[in-house]
Amino acid sequence: MRHTWWAALAVTAGLALGLASCAKPDDRIIILNRLKQASKLATVKFTYNKIVWGEKEKRLFIRLRNASFLAYSKVEITAGIDLAKIKPGNVSLEGRSIQITLPPVEIITYSYPFQKVQVDPNYTASRFLNTIRVEDMEEFLRLADADIRRSLNHLGIEERARTNTRALLTKILKKFNFEVIDIDFEAPAKPLTLSIQ
After folding, report:
1. Dihedrals phi, psi of 44, to nearest 5 degrees
2. Which of 148, 153, 157 is nearest to 43 (CA)?
3. Per-residue confidence in pLDDT tens, the chain, 197 aa
4. Which of the 8 DSSP states describes residue 61?
5. Could you give the CA distance from residue 98 to residue 172 in angstroms, rounded to a whole number?
6. Would the pTM count as exceeding 0.90?
7. 3-state secondary structure of 86
């Protein structure tokens, strides 16, 4: 959360310096360029705790007891707006009114660090001739990662990023005497997905 706050503060300072130097004839172009310079505006950081559970079945003439695996993992997702994608037609000025249509929300960073996985030694158990190996753990974690990626659109990330972005940009633009501020978002071409790997 601290990193998101510092990023938002840096963007605010950059936009403030840029918008303060706006000259009347080129206001729309100057605002557009200053917004683009801010580039990726991260407005929400989401930490998702995931319990990873699995069993490994093995047969040698007879069915052996299942080996079990339980771990606690943490996924960190940062979402926001890529301001570099704003087009000239996305900014409209009329006196002290401004209307901006922002690009859709996207995932900026996605981290599923193996170092933060905590295996539960009380539940994880290898059985006679049926052990949980590193490869098995990696497969359980890969399946958990795939599950998280499938559920991105059901975590509320997109709506939260829109709300935070709208609030931040409204606050910045009000400091420059805009009285009517209308911030909208382009409709996404597809559901929220990871463009990064």
Report:
1. -150, 135
2. 157
3. 445 444 444 444 454 444 444 435 466 677 777 777 777 878 889 898 888 878 766 655 655 667 777 889 999 999 999 888 888 888 888 888 989 999 999 998 899 888 888 888 787 656 555 566 778 888 888 999 999 888 888 888 999 999 999 998 899 888 878 889 999 999 887 777 665 44
4. S
5. 12
6. no
7. coil
